[in-house]
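Audit log entry. Action: structure prediction of a protein-small molecule complex. Ligand: zinc ion. The ligand was supplied as SMILES and no pocket hint was given, so placement is left entirely to the predictor. Protonation state taken as written. Sequence taken verbatim from the request; no trimming, no tag removal. Recorded inputs:
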Amino acid sequence: MPSHDEIVEAAAILIEAARGFYDKNWMLGTSGNLSLKMTEETDPEGLQYLITASGPDKGALTPDDFVLVGKGGIALQPPQAKSSAETLLHEAVYQSFPDVVAVYHVHTVTATLLSIHATDDNQVLTFSNLEMIKGLGFDTHDVTIELPVFENSQDIAALSQAVRPQLNPNVPGFLIKGHGLYAWGKSPFEAKRHVEIWEYLFQFKLMERMLQVNPQAASQ
Ligand SMILES: [Zn+2]
């Protein structure tokens, strides 16, 4: 089990990330959750990660607002603590991609709007030929990527099983319809960068759609 100092250090990283997202209006009203893997083991049985507790204000987190959990979302430290209601979705990402170190989940207006109104076949959001796509780990803008979109559910255990077969190692994220974005990375910095890149792409697509609805706006 990680030491007290290691947990405080990890919490500090997540507190800073949450504060940044909160200040951008991406984690309002206690929404969203963040986690950081605390173990090196690739053995999924040994997985442990620090995750936000259920309920606190994401703009004012303290080290007491985190729970160390193990496989199955079981609270290890403090033992009876209640971690985020969406803990098992974090576990799904860590178990799918052993090199992932941080998983960030935010409720942004653009992600939520597009998840409802702009999907292809109700299953993916598509982006192509944009320079910012390179920030997701591609070495060229000249690609088309598909971001999976899943139906929202309050049965997180079932949802966490449903997402696993659809996760793509080259596309670090997914949307839950009418809900928000999950993104991840091999470091906390990379996870933060991916959240920001996705949000840029969402804002771009939303404005592009608005131009298409109102073409006169493009010529004014
Ligand atoms: Zn959520």
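Audit: result stored. The chain has a mean pLDDT of 93. The longest strand covers residues 144-150.
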